[in-house]
Amino acid sequence: MKMLIAKKSTIIFVVLLIGMMLTAAKCSEDVTKYAYQTLNASQAAYNFAKSVTIDLYKSGYLNDEQKAEAIKLSKAYSDSYHAAVAALKTYETTRGDIDRGGLETALANAGKTLADLTKYLQPYIKKREGG
User: Global pTM?
Assistant: First the structure.
C-alpha cells in the first residue's frame, strides 16, 4: 500500500513538473534542453503509471476491460512521446521557428496523453488506498 501511495505521489509530482518544464521551454531560448528534460521526466512518470497499472490489475482493482483502457491510454502516450522525440530531432537539425512550434505542440500533446492516463488511474488508486 505504501508503495502505491509513493507511486501515486511520484506520478502527480512528475506531471506537475512536466507542466512547469513545458512553460519554461516556451519562455527559453534553450528549448532543446527543456525538451530532453521534459521527455525524460514524462518517460519516468509513464514507467510508474505502467507499474501502478500492473499492481492495480494484480490486486483486483482493475478488471480486464479497465486494464485494456489503461493500455489504450498508455499506447496513446507512447505514440505521442515518439512523435515528440521525432519533433525534437527535427528541431535540432533545423532550429527553425516552425519546427520549434511543432516541438512545443508535440511536447504538450505528450504531456496531455500522460495526464489522461494518470487521470484515468486516479479513481482506482484511491479505491486501492481505501478512499
Answer: 0.80
Residue 83: helix, strand or coil by DSSP?
Answer: helix
Q: What is the pLDDT of residues 62-80, one digit of tens each?
A: 999 999 999 999 999 999 9
Scored b (16 or more CB within 10 A) or e, 21-37 reads bbeebeeeeebbebbee
Domains along the sequence of the chain with CATH = 2-128 (1.20.1420.10)
Nearest partner of 49 among 81, 71, 27, judged by Cα: 71
Joined together, the cell numbers standing for residue 73 give: 491510454
Distance, in Å, from the CA atom of 111 to the CA atom of 57, rounded to the nearest integer, reads: 24
Q: Are the CB atoms for 59 and 130 separated by under 8 Å? A: no
C-alpha cell at 125: 488508486
Give me the phi and psi of 91, to 5 degrees please: -65, -40
Q: In Å, how far are 42, 48, 94, 118 from 104, measured between CA atoms?
A: 14, 24, 15, 21
